[in-house]
Amino acid sequence: MPEEKTETRLDAKTFHKRVRHFLNAWKTSSPTDSPFQGVNAILIIVSDISEENPYQKSTAFQQWILGYEFKDTIIVVMQDKIHFVVRERRAEVLEQLKQGDRQVPIEIHKLSKDVSNNHKVFESIISKITEGDQKKVGLLLKEKPSGKFYDEWLNVFDQHKDNLEEVDISSGIATALAVKDEEELRTIRTASKISITMMNRFINVVTTIVDDEKETTHDQLSDKIENILYSKDDKWLSSQKTLQDVDFERTDICYAPIIQSGGNYNFKATAQSDNNLLHDGTILCSLGVRYKSYCSNIGRTILIDPTKDQEKTYEFLLDLQRRLLEWIKDGVKISDVYKKALKYIKMKRPELVEKFVKNLGHGMGIEFRESNYILNLKNDKEFQAGMVLNLFTGFVDLENPKATDAKNKIYALWIIDTVRVSNESAVPFTEGNKNLDSICFSLKDANESEQETKKANKRPTKPVQAPRSAARKSTILKTKFRSEEKDEESIEQRRKRHQEELAAQKQADGLARFGNGVDHTTKQPQEAFRKFESYKRDTALPKEVKELKIIVDQRNESVILPVFGFAVPFHISTLKNVNKSEEGEYIYLRLNFLTPGQASGKKEDMPFDDPNANFIRAFTYRSTDPLLADIYKGILDLKKSAAKKEAERKEMADLIQQDKLIELKGRRPTHRLSDVFVRPGLEGKRVPGELEIHENGLRYHSHRTNQKLDILFSNIQHLFFQPCDNELIVLLHMHLKNPVIHGKKKTKDIQFYREASDVQFDETGNRKRKFRYGDEDELGAEQEERRRRTLLNKEFKAFAEKISESSEGSLDVDIPFRDIGFQGVPFRTNVLLQPTTECFVHLTDPPFLVVTITDIEIAHLERVQFGLKNFDLVFIFKDYSRSPLHINTIPMNQLENVKDWLDSVDVTFYEGTQNLNWSQIMKTINQDPADFYSQGGWSFLKLHSENDDSDDASDSASEYQQSEDEFEESSSNESSYDDEVSDNAVVQGSETEESDDSAPDWDELEEKARRADERKHGTKRATDSDEELEKNKRVRR
């Protein structure tokens, strides 16, 4: 690093804040069992800075508190003061630290060219260390400084070594530096952005090399990638939109990029790129970037023409990393996470246990590898929120028996990411380019199909195709002959096989969740008994009780009844209902109370303090006083008021006290979105407002009113941006974790939008429009509207990305996929439902719909049968106490699209021909979930679907058989009819002389034919109704 100059600016505020944090960690640690080991002074020496080994704790500590590396410097940290021993020129720079509030006392000792004077300074420092009874000093014993400055210090220090107890303090420094503050996290996030951009460039470079059949070695390719950061002539990196604010003068490479292929894979920390040629197959690459001395790391696998087994193994590795991110959280032991990973591999893919990496990475910050936080089976330290990890997941020495090339028979897979530990799941900083669609490429084309068996290793002559998923969805045949497609699975077969795997996994998860006596977590909450107190003492009773009348006390929500000469109060909540009837001159008033065992609908399961106590079931009063009718009306009004208050109380029961918004002090927020409306709207007239980004959240307010709405980043679960393409509005939608009160109502969805139509634009000033009406005006208006919509989309999307950046990576911008959306009725109206990366949403009109895909247990497609135009979709959630979501009237032509989407997001789905009673089904499941899964779980839906299919098939078969019989009957009838015609002709010829009156009429002939049919066909024709017979008579007449 270049030597510092006098104009170097130190951040005194950051220095004192971090030193206070370090001293607090030291003081609060245990004297015996702690990483600081009870030392009374810490001595950190930096002599000559080594370029070969930049990762040392001494320089890391300097970087942490000062932001720079100063050579020839001694820092002595005491619990009440910090001493700096430096050259005179650097002492002037350190004087800047004596500024600001809440200072930690510092003392600067200046060295000169006079050796004797320097010895005196060293002696004074050592005397301060040896003061008091305890003379235990903490040193970085594993580091071996070198240089003239260190030799000069060592000559003096060795004379006092016998009076001091030396202790290695590296563990204490690592503990203090492990948790990063907001400024450090922001710097690491910027370094991660540079790493992501360079990895994207690497993938493009590799595919180009393979496509052009160029030969290059691993180390040559490594140098080419490294030069992207250092080459000043290559402006590609600095031209990227995500890196506009980066100071590239303060960027550096953590290590030379590591590239491996061709069957030789090394997962050790000392691995380097060798001089072997790059081989297409499985290509591994990892690279790291330092920004302002803070490290980031990323590693990806590129698969060229992989087999299905390789794809399956990589998908499993992705799933394992997702689970690791869920397991890594504040307070969890490092060893426990590694144990969970091994257990999960043994359960899913036991053959991969021996191939799994021996550690899952390490802590990272100023040091690339924080040795105290190696993520392996032996480390019992706990994760802490704010730590940054280099998360390394992979399998090595995997075998590929289907490989046609010897170098591809052994392969390895890895995924490396920079992640931040939080209170929930870990947050990756280097997200992207790790799904199978992004790293899997196919080089085979149709022209190679005939030559494939002869020349298996021949390189392709056509360009590298798009990612593999795109090739699968292509309608162009990959082969020339049908026989070559026999081994290829159809889309339906692959989907069916995948669904069977998901169903088996769902059953295994259910048994693990509820089986073996494990308490399930989806029990419906039992309503606790609430005590009602009408009056604390008898003096609080109304004065009217002396008259022994029925009194309705609205203030105390009670009804006072006279009982055997006593005034007895009853809280309105104990009253079930009240009835009034009149008989003659008397008015009867009956009050029924809630008691155990009553079948009272919603109140059937109402808890009681002691169900075995004696209860009053009802009171009946009779009177001729017409005031009894007023009392009846007063009790009804009181009960309605109490029911309304109880409903409001239950509605607000799940509200959580929100933290306060930390505003940006001293300046107006730079990131603002003006002229936007909010839904649900504020009270009063609908007026636009302004949305601002503050330190820990958002604030929406209108300049015309004093109302404001604060939303914290920590309470936002999903952030959506929906462009105004094919819509009337452009919007930002926030789905909250916990509901908030907005406009006197509770809501979990807040939306900010701006209208995209030209209704709000005033065009009355254009005089030409009064005289010109034609295609030119319409074309200009369309172009203006397209331009306006483009600007709106750009503005809202940029603001959404700023929200994501300000939330420190806890929020990602999710955009609905309109192309795979479909129509449906989730509430009362038919709307467009659109999937996103993490959700399933409808955001255009209220009521809004936001369903998190990970919350879905299964999906059930209902009314799926031939002849219907629509079908229904039901989502059952993992929280069984949550009501299933019904989406009705989905067009039948969208059935395959819905199935493909559900299968792509790993949601198990079933289908049937009928609508099921899900309220009763879920009630049965909640009664005993363990028994439900022991009997097969959700497989009953598959059996139900198969039964429906078999019934339909049997019905159709019987109908088809019946039609054949009828056909035979009609044939025999026709032949018999022909015989009868010929016979009749003969008879008619012989009986021409008889009179017509002797012939039978139509009724007799019909009756005769019916009896003949009965004899021939049994009772078949006997079942014909009289109406049908009469109809046949009329037709034949």
TrEMBL record:
Keyword terms: Chromosome, Coiled coil, DNA damage, DNA repair, DNA replication, Nucleus, Transcription, Transcription regulation
Subcellular location: Nucleus; Chromosome
Disordered: annotated span: 450-504, 944-1037
SMART domains: FACT-Spt16_Nlob, Rtt106, SPT16
Listed Acidic residues bias regions: 962-982, 991-1006
Coiled coil residues, start to end: none
Domain FACT complex subunit SPT16 N-terminal lobe: 10-173
Biased composition (Basic and acidic residues): 1007-1024
GO biological process: DNA repair; DNA replication; regulation of gene expression; transcription elongation by RNA polymerase II
GO molecular function, one term: nucleosome binding
GO-annotated cellular components: FACT complex
Main subcellular localisation: nucleus
Span of domain Histone chaperone RTT106/FACT complex subunit SPT16-like middle: 822-912
Keyword Transcription annotated: yes
Listed Gene3D superfamilies: 2.30.29.150, Creatinase/methionine aminopeptidase superfamily, Creatinase/prolidase N-terminal domain, FACT complex subunit Spt16p/Cdc68p, Pleckstrin-homology domain (PH domain)/Phosphotyrosine-binding domain (PTB)
Boundaries of every FACT complex subunit SPT16 middle domain copy: 550-700
Quaternary structure (record): Component of the FACT complex.
Family that this chain belongs to: Belongs to the peptidase M24 family. SPT16 subfamily.
Function: Component of the FACT complex, a general chromatin factor that acts to reorganize nucleosomes. The FACT complex is involved in multiple processes that require DNA as a template such as mRNA elongation, DNA replication and DNA repair. During transcription elongation the FACT complex acts as a histone chaperone that both destabilizes and restores nucleosomal structure.
UniProt protein name: FACT complex subunit
Source organism phylogeny: Eukaryota, Fungi, Fungi incertae sedis, Mucoromycota, Glomeromycotina
